[in-house]
Task: structure prediction
Amino acid sequence: MSVLSALPFLKPVHLRSPRSSPGGQRRHTLPASEFRCLSPEDAVSVFEIEREAFISVSGDCPLHLDEIRQFLNLCPELSLGWFEEGRLVAFIIGSLWDQERLSQEALTLHKPRGTAVHIHVLAVHRTFRQQGKGSILMWRYLQYLRCLPFARRALLMCEDFLVPFYQKCGFEALGPCEVTVGELAFVEMQHPVRGHAFMRRNSGC
Result:
């Protein structure tokens, strides 16, 4: 059984939003919202959103196109995309890590035996920002991780100004991150994945 088929809340969600035609009759459209794991075929769309979101702020992207393709080939089950009427509007890409804290190697490596999910990037398309989509997507992603038997915690690194956002998502700051990118420094944050047995029993996992 695939990971996806075991998770009811991560199966593609097709929420149709009927629209009225000029004659007043409703017509069907593409699904309004769909959540699913990403595939290598989504890599270009992912990179376009990421590039616009990050280059204007920090001058670089957390993941380059070849790295996105690498992770979506090695561990697509650790990604999640939000699609609106077939268009990617937000995404998360993660990989596994096998140490207590992140190091420079964590930026490009996937450790299949790891128990920590390193969240490399969360990004929302510019036309869909300020709508709470980032928080909603992160919530769904964390629920998903609780159903993966190997996942024990989620790790990420972010700049200071993003710390309050991730704290609202349930992450706690671990202190300065060892990883640097150019002159940028980061705070490392953690979210426990295990210890939610009641939630797992009631989520169909």
